[in-house]
Automatic annotation (TrEMBL):
Component of the signal recognition particle (SRP) complex, a ribonucleoprotein complex that mediates the cotranslational targeting of secretory and membrane proteins to the endoplasmic reticulum (ER). It comes from Tuber borchii (White truffle). This is Signal recognition particle subunit SRP14. Keywords: Cytoplasm, Ribonucleoprotein, RNA-binding, Signal recognition particle. The keyword Membrane does not apply. Pfam families: SRP14.
Amino acid sequence: MGEPPRLTHEEFFKSLTTLLATATAKEKSTVYLTQKPLLHPSASTESNSENPPLLIRATNGDSKDQRKKGAKRDGRIKVSTVVMPDELQSFFEKYAEVAKGGMGSLKKRDRKARKKAKKRGKEGGGGKVGV
């Protein structure tokens, strides 16, 4: 299975916005955002090794769920782009804006129920010793 073609920055942001919107529309969905240096084995110049371009990738979490069910990976979406070192500042400003916009409808975790259950476990687990 080959790597999908890398998108321009604007195409990547448009696809990322769509991916985040569909993920928040579903009840349980995951979007993985990764970034790593793009190192070529043939790159021997010092300037490239100090500040290599970054590979930015966004994928949905459908592949793991579908693998468990034994279904094909038709629902997997994978988009990527390459950011050169001189474009990093402007790219990450837009990237942060798109990512924050896509997280607006996320549900905050309910930690109170977990704390209450933990507290009940401590109280009910050991008896009081009378003096």
